[in-house]
Amino acid sequence: MTRPRDPALAYNFSISLAESAGTGALIQTTVGLPPQGGFSECAGLELTIPAETYAEGGNNGTLLKFTGRAAWSNIKLKRGVVTSADLWRWHYDYIEGRGKRRDGVIALLDDRGKAVRSWRFVRGLPVRWAGPGLDASQSRVAIEEIEIAHEGLRQTGAGSGSLADTVSNLFG
User: Fold this and answer.
1) What pLDDT, on the 0 to 100 scale, is given for residue 6?
2) How many Å apart are CA 123 and CA 117, to the nearest integer?
3) Distance in angstroms between the alpha carbons of the first and the last residue of the chain
4) φ, ψ for residue 101, nearest 5 deg
5) Exposed/middle/buried for residue 59 (C-beta within 10 Å: 0-12, 13-18, 19+)
6) DSSP 148-168
7) pLDDT at 156
8) Which residues form a coiled coil (predicted)?
């Protein structure tokens, strides 16, 4: 059991996706709960604000710095291959001309399953899917990956309680 001021551990997280319009079923995959098979890795929770330089006329001693436009990294998710082809279908639907954007919540959980911190991305667009590397000489889990471009990341629900409350507040 962790103490309240101990840092959260990175292995306990949950990821939920829902159509951006707010309609449709919530796809929820949580680490360790079969049969969905949870995501084993999540990367790309990044925000960069580049500094723009301005050379002010008559001020030869310095360059002024101002904030530029925010840039969000793509979110990269990895999970063991399961019988559900939901990630493949979401990506392939764009090739077929019927793709739908999804919003998502990534929640970092404590040992009791309560959200320590959550991040919500909006208007997610699957830009890359990768299937497993297959090698008969190895006995490791087959991993599939999806990369999601999005239009913004918001930190929400910091210390707000259960994942159900966080998902309900964001999608309800």
Assistant:
1) 73
2) 20
3) 31
4) -70, 155
5) exposed
6) EE-S-EEEE-TT-EEHHHHHH
7) 79
8) none
Mean pLDDT of 88-102: 92
User: Residue 44: CA atoms inside 13 Å, Cβ hemisphere, count?
Assistant: 22
Compute the distance between CA of residue 93 and CA of residue 105 in angstroms, rounded to an integer.
21
Reply yes or no on whether the pLDDT at 76 is more than 50.
yes
How far is residue 8's CA from residue 107's CA, in Å, rounded to a whole number? 11
Please name each of the domains of the chain with its CATH number: 13-53+63-171 (2.30.110.20)
Q: Within 13 Å of residue 63, how many CA atoms lie on the same side as its CB?
A: 7
Question: Which pTM does this prediction carry?
Answer: 0.75
DSSP labels, 9-53: PTT-EEEEEEETTS-SPPEEEETT-TTT--EEEEE---EE-PEEE
Give dist(CA 152, CA 12) in Å, integer.
23
Q: How far apart are CA 34 and CA 19, in angstroms?
A: 23
Q: What is the mean pLDDT of the chain?
A: 80
Distance of CA 53 to the CA centre of its chain: 31
